Fold these 2 entries.
Entry 1:
Amino acid sequence: KAGVTQTPRYLIKTRGQQVTLSCSPISGHRSVSWYQQTPGQGLQFLFEYFSETQRNKGNFPGRFSGRQFSNSRSEMNVSTLELGDSALYLCASSLHGGAYEQYFGPGTRLTVT
Amino acid sequence: GQQLNQSPQSMFIQEGEDVSMNCTSSSIFNTWLWYKQDPGEGPVLLIALYKAGELTSNGRLTAQFGITRKDSFLNISASIPSDVGIYFCAGQNEAAGNKLTFGGGTRVLVKP
């Protein structure tokens, strides 16, 4: 069974631009969660989508948004990029949603200059 | 917000040694998960624990869900070089909306 895939793997953007990251979950998994990982803050939860609905949200500004499609693929968008948004963005898929056995993708390394 | 305190922050291992790391919190958790992350990759799930007192093994790895539900530990027996990486604990509870809260990680390095 294929694992979680994320595209692109690396991205360089300029401050003020926007970016869209994509995540394809494990086949059959209906929940996708997004996390931001930085050396200073560690792994922080952004949001979770289950069956196309946002089910949970972390403490990030409204510039961070996401959506999920009917095939469970998910995208996250960051608008008006700031230098502090430079991070590894990870998505994780789960069969049942919530916290049970979340499987992570390789991440997208975003650098904002 | 909730915090998971993971210790030690880093450790050096020598091949063949047993090592231990733990995660503690002032909050009660219903689920504990342990992950390992290699450089440039996403975390890989090692062990999932769902019940207080539960002891689960995965090869040379053993993890326990503390009886108080406020802690968990991970043990690696007979270390090998590929055990190098960062190990994260993660907990889930209703207070956090059932989302995962991660510890700061334990960086495992090889003794020079």
Note: Chain B is about 0% helix and 50% strand.
Entry 2:
Amino acid sequence: GAGVSQSPRYKVTKRGQDVALRCDPISGHVSLYWYRQALGQGPEFLTYFNYEAQQDKSGLPNDRFSAERPEGSISTLTIQRTEQRDSAMYRCASSLGVDQPQHFGDGTRLSIL
Amino acid sequence: QKEVEQDPGPLSVPEGAIVSLNCTYSNSAFQYFMWYRQYSRKGPELLMYTYSSGNKEDGRFTAQVDKSSKYISLFIRDSQPSDSATYLCAMNPNDYKLSFGAGTTVTVRA
């Protein structure tokens, strides 16, 4: 595709439910990143993949958050037992390589009731 | 204290004016510096990408990096209403983990 595609665009769920957010990177981009962006703030790093390998998950807030990229393309960020504080915009980015500029998707707005 | 500081504005200028944006940072290891533009309900769009100190020009946009002062700037010449957006600075040392400023909201009045 032309850009990074994220789905769904909006997700509203009740506290305690699990959610899965999907990211489809730019074709040919081997590096993929997840960020979280609070209102009025810049994105904050969550995790990074090179191909299918998760190289860094130091930004994940706790063990309810996990991510995978099993075939080195599409990635899923999963949040288990959601809490209201998880409400935010979740953004995915991809790049040709780890030292190349990152290109962002339009994000998934997650709201936990 | 945040690693990257950016005045959130808002900044309002008349069409045709020069827009001046800046960020300061505390981590001397930062070597790659970026400016992203973010329209409402859209993701950040990469505008400028520079390495180390110096200037880079691309059309109406000029990015400046002064590592000695830990200060970066973005100038937009002949501003247009379509330049109205939030501008985010971002930087990293030599890897993938971008550190962003909070963003400056700019409005260009027709």
Note: The mean pLDDT of chain A is 95.
